[in-house]
Amino acid sequence: MTDFQAPLKLVVSGPVGAGKTTFVQTLSETPVVATEAEASEDIGKRHTTVAFDFGTLRLDGQELHLYGTPGQDRFSFMWEVLCEGALGLVLLVAGDRPQDFAHARNILDFITSRIPVPFLVGVTRQDLPRVWAPDDVALYFGLPERQVVGLNATDPDHARLLLASLLELQLAAPALS
Ligand SMILES: Nc1nc2c(ncn2[C@@H]2O[C@H](COP(=O)(O)OP(=O)(O)OP(=O)(O)O)[C@@H](O)[C@H]2O)c(=O)[nH]1
Ligand SMILES: [Mg+2]
Fold first, then answer.
1. Which is deepest, 26, 81, 92, 150, by most CB within 10 Å?
2. Does the Cβ of 125 fall within 6 Å of ligand 1?
3. Model confidence over 16-53: pLDDT tens digits?
């Protein structure tokens, strides 16, 4: 027996502009590997993730590896690659972009139908006016309120709290084999 604990792999996914890259950058204690490129179509911002974001941190003594996915559907093959072996999922959606909620739901279904992992929905941009509250997003997704958390993805305290809640869910989940 060794007391080496393997890093826990967590995936951060969601539509374009949900805050995935921001979330990984806010949390990572090591320099983030990011693969942003100039967007080739009009997605409302200049740069977008084309392969993944990668960051690491320790939380409650557990080493975590975070993989942020691209948001654009044309990179959906990367979702499967990145989700291989994942033990948790953070599905981010921008609280001021309700037009993206259906797409977020599709991404969530796509991933959880392939890997039945514990997940939390994070509703970003809570620092801005006129955003959907997490409870309303929970209703929209048909999820229990405790599974939908509001956050400002640029705030380390918010981001760490969300991950801590996901770890709690993960510990509570029956062992997946
Ligand atoms: N005020 C505020 N801005 C945010 C928040 N989350 C993300 N942003 C901003 O929203 C923009 C888009 O965020 P990204 O992290 O690039 O989004 P993404 O999900 O990685 O997008 P793709 O890689 O294109 O799919 C950036 O300018 C962020 O600074 C938030 O909670 N509050
Ligand atoms: Mg990104």
1. 92
2. yes
3. 999 999 999 999 999 999 999 998 878 888 999 998 99
Instruction: Give 114-164 pLDDT, tens digit per residue.
Output: 888 999 999 999 999 999 999 999 999 999 999 999 999 999 999 999 999
- Asked if CATH classification 3.40.630.10 holds for the domain at 8-172, the reply, yes or no, is no
Give the SS3 label for residue 4.
Answer: coil
User: Alpha-carbon distance 109 to 126, whole Å?
Assistant: 24
Tokens representing 67 are 């993989």
Question: What is the residue with the minimal CA distance to atom 14 of ligand 1?
Answer: 19
d(CA 83, CA 117): 10
Please tell me if the CB atom of residue 13 comes closer than 6 angstroms to any atom of ligand 1: no
CA of 80 to the centre of ligand 2 (A): 16
**pTM for the full predicted model:** 0.94
